[in-house]
Write a structure and sequence with these properties.
This protein has six helices and 13 strands. The chain has helices at residues 18-27, 86-99, 119-132, 147-151, 196-204, 219-233; strands at 3-5, 13-15, 35-39, 44-52, 59-67, 76-80, 103-108, 140-141, 145-146, 159-163, 172-173, 184-188, 208-211. Strands 6, 7, 8, 9, 10, 11, 12 and 13 form an eight-stranded parallel beta sheet that branches. A five-stranded mixed beta sheet has the order 1-3-4-5-2. The relative contact order is 0.16.
C-alpha cells in the first residue's frame, strides 16, 4: 500500500498537488477507478477512489474513513540534543517515526554543540517516514527548546526519565523502569552529556536517572535505543 499525507483532506473530494499528482500518474500509474490511501496525520486512514488521473491535477473521492488500524498503546516524547553532524539527528528522527514516537523535541543543553535546527526539514523527514512506515499519526517535531523550559513543563502523570553517563549515579535500566501503557518522556543529552547541574535540575523536576546499558552510545543511538526500549516493552 502506498500512503499519502493529506492533512486537509476534510471533504469527500480532494485534489492532489502537482508533485503528488505526477507521482500517482507517472510512477504509480494510477488510473480512474483505482483506490489510493491517505492519512490526515491525526490517526485517520482514508480510502479514496481516483476520479481524475492527471499528472498535474489528480482528483480523488473518499469512499471510507477508518480509525488508525494499529494505534500505539503508549505515548512517547524524546527530548534529545541535536548532534553537531545534523545528518545523525535527522537519521534519528526518521527511525523514531518508523518505530513509534509521538513527539521529538530538539533540546538545547549546556554542552550542546548545535543550537540551531531547521525544524521544517525535520518535519518533512517525519512525514516521509510516516508514509513509508504506513502510520496514520504524524510524529510532532518541535522547534529547538531550552533544557530549562522543557523540564519545567507539565507532563501530567507521564513517566519521566533522564539518561546520562555519570557512572557514580545509581541508575536502573530504562527497560526495568518503564511501565507499559503509560506516557513516557525521555531526556537524551548532547555528545558531551548533560552537565551535573542539568542532571540535578531534572531530578528536582521529577525525572529519574536511567541507563541504556553498558555500552557508551552516540547521542542519536541512545535516543533510538530509548524509542526501541519503550516500543518493545509495550508490545
Amino acid at each position: 500500500m502506498q500512503l499519502f499525507y493529506a492533512p486537509d483532506f476534510i471533504t469527500d473530494s480532494y485534489t492532489l498537488c502537482e508533485e503528488e499528482s505526477a507521482h500517482c500518474v507517472k510512477v504509480l500509474r494510477a488510473s480512474v477507478g483505482d483506490t489510493l490511501h491517505f492519512t490526515d496525520g491525526r490517526g485517520t486512514l482514508i480510502a479514496a477512489c481516483v476520479e481524475v488521473a492527471d499528472k498535474k491535477r489528480t482528483v480523488v473521492r473518499a469512499v471510507e474513513r477508518l480509525a488508525e488500524p494499529h494505534p500505539l498503546p503508549y505515548d512517547l516524547t524524546v527530548a534529545c540534543a541535536p548532534t553537531k553532524n545534523i545528518d545523525r539527528f535527522e537519521w534519528f528522527v526518521e527511525k523514531a517515526v518508523e518505530v513509534g514516537c509521538g513527539r521529538v523535541v530538539p533540546l538545547c543543553c549546556d554542552h550542546s554543540e548545535r543550537r540551531i535546527v531547521k525544524e521544517d526539514r525535520l518535519r518533512k523527514i517525519a512525514v516521509s517516514a510516516m508514509k513509508q512506515s504506513l502510520k496514520c499519526r504524524l510524529t510532532e517535531v518541535d522547534a529547538m527548546t531550552s533544557f530549562d523550559d522543557f523540564i519545567g513543563a507539565d507532563y501530567g502523570d507521564a513517566q519521566l526519565f533522564i539518561a546520562h553517563c555519570d557512572p557514580s549515579d545509581d541508575k536502573r535500566l530504562l527497560r526495568d523502569s518503564v511501565e507499559p501503557g503509560r506516557s513516557v518522556v525521555v531526556l537524551i543529552g548532547p555528545e558531551g552529556d548533560f552537565s551535573p547541574e542539568e542532571v540535578e535540575s531534572a531530578r528536582a523536576a521529577g525525572f529519574r536517572p536511567v541507563s541504556l546499558g553498558e555500552s557508551r552510545l552516540r547521542t542519536e543511538t541512545a535516543a533510538l535505543a530509548s524509542v526501541m526500549t519503550v516500543a518493545l516493552i509495550n508490545q
